[in-house]
Q: What sequence folds into this?
C-alpha cells in the first residue's frame, strides 16, 4: 500500500519550503499540498496541529508531524533512499542540529522586524540580522555546503531564507553581497546545483509582491 502524504502549508512559508525541499531530495513528489489561510485557520489544521496551530504539518498515513525541522528529520529517517540529510556520525549530526536550531531561533524574529518595523527598532533588527548572517557565513567558511561537500540538513534549514534576501535588502537598505558574499555564493550554488531547491523556492518577484501586500495588512497594527 502506497504512503498517503498530505502537506498543510502556505506557499511563502520558509518553513514549508524546507519540507518540500526535503521531500524532493528523497524523490517524493506524489503528495497532496493543501494551502492554508493563517488568518482564518481551518478545521484540518486545528485538528492536526492543535498546540501551535501553524504550518507546515506533514500528515503521513493519517498521522501528523509538526514543526519544520522535526519534519525534515522525520523524512530523512523514514525514507532512506538517496544520501542522508543528517550524517550517520552522531557528533556531525548534533552539530548540524545545533546550526539548524540557531537558524530557527535567530533569523526569523529580526528579519520580520526589518520589513515591518521602522526607526530605531528596525535599525537594531537590521544590525542583529546581519550579525546572524555573518555568524552563519563564518560557519560555512570555504565549504561548498554547511556539512562539507554534500547538501544536507543545515542547507535545507537555511536556503528558504534566500527568498527573503531581496526583502531584507529593500527595507533594511543594505546589500547581502556586500555584507556576506560567501553566503550569497552558497545560495546561488544551492539554487543552481540542486533541483530540489530551484523547483521549491518561489519566484522572487511573486514573493516580494506578497510581502508588500502582507506588510500593508500588518502595518496598521504596529
A:
Amino acid at each position: 500500500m502506497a504512503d498517503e502524504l498530505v502537506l498543510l502549508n502556505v506557499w511563502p512559508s520558509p518553513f514549508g519550503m524546507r519540507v518540500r525541499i526535503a521531500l524532493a531530495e528523497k524523490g517524493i513528489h506524489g503528495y497532496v499540498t493543501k494551502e492554508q489561510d493563517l488568518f482564518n485557520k481551518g478545521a484540518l489544521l486545528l485538528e492536526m496541529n492543535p498546540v501551535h496551530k501553524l504550518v507546515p504539518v506533514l500528515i503521513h498515513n493519517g498521522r501528523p508531524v509538526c514543526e519544520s525541522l522535526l519534519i525534515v528529520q522525520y523524512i530523512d529517517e523514514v525514507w532512506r533512499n538517496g544520501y542522508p540529510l543528517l550524517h550517520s556520525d552522531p557528533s556531525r549530526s548534533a552539530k548540524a542540529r545545533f546550526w539548524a536550531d540557531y537558524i530557527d531561533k535567530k533569523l526569523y524574529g529580526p528579519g520580520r522586524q526589518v520589513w515591518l518595523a521602522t526607526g530605531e527598532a528596525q535599525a537594531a533588527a537590521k544590525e542583529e540580522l546581519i550579525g546572524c548572517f555573518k555568524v552563519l557565513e563564518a560557519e560555512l567558511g570555504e565549504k561548498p555546503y554547511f556539512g562539507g561537500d554534500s547538501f544536507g540538513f543545515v542547507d535545507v534549514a537555511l536556503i528558504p531564507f534566500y527568498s527573503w534576501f531581496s526583502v531584507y535588502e529593500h527595507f533594511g537598505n543594505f546589500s547581502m553581497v556586500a555584507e556576506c558574499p560567501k553566503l550569497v555564493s552558497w545560495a546561488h550554488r544551492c539554487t543552481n546545483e540542486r533541483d530540489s531547491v530551484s523547483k521549491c523556492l518561489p519566484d522572487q518577484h511573486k514573493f516580494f509582491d506578497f510581502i508588500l501586500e502582507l506588510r500593508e495588512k500588518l502595518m496598521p497594527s504596529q
About this structure: The chain is about 55% helix and 10% strand. The mean pLDDT is 95.
